[in-house]
Amino acid sequence: MSLLHWAIVFFVIAIIAAVLGFGGLAATAAGIAQILFFVFLAVFLVLLILALFRGGRHAV
């Protein structure tokens, strides 16, 4: 599973926990979701830059 998928899962858990009144669990899940999202974003940007430097060649 991808990092973005896990970030979305933890975000949904945070929303459900917040609605049910579990503030500590909601904050923890939201923090994990935020970290996973930013890791995903960093990996995506690195791979995008590498692909741009690679040029017009396509890997098959």
Helix tally equals 2
Any idea what the shape is? rod-shaped
What would you call the structural class?
mainly alpha
Largest β-sheet summary: none
- When the domains are counted, the total is 1
| Nearest-integer average pLDDT | 86
Beta-strand percentage range: under 5%
From the alpha-carbon coordinates, what is the Rg to the nearest angstrom?
Answer: 16 Å
The helix/strand series, from N terminus to C terminus, equals: HH
Helix share bin: over 70%
Q: What is the CA–CA distance across the termini?
A: 22 Å
Low-pLDDT ranges:
none
Q: What is the total tally of β strands? A: 0
Task: Provide a descriptive summary of the structure in words.
There is one protein chain. This protein has 60 residues and is an all-alpha fold. It has one domain (3-54). 83% of the residues lie in helices and 0% in strands. It contains 2 helices and no strands. It has helices at residues 3-20, 23-54. Helix 1 runs antiparallel to helix 2 (23-54). It is rod-shaped and about 50 Å long. The mean pLDDT is 86.
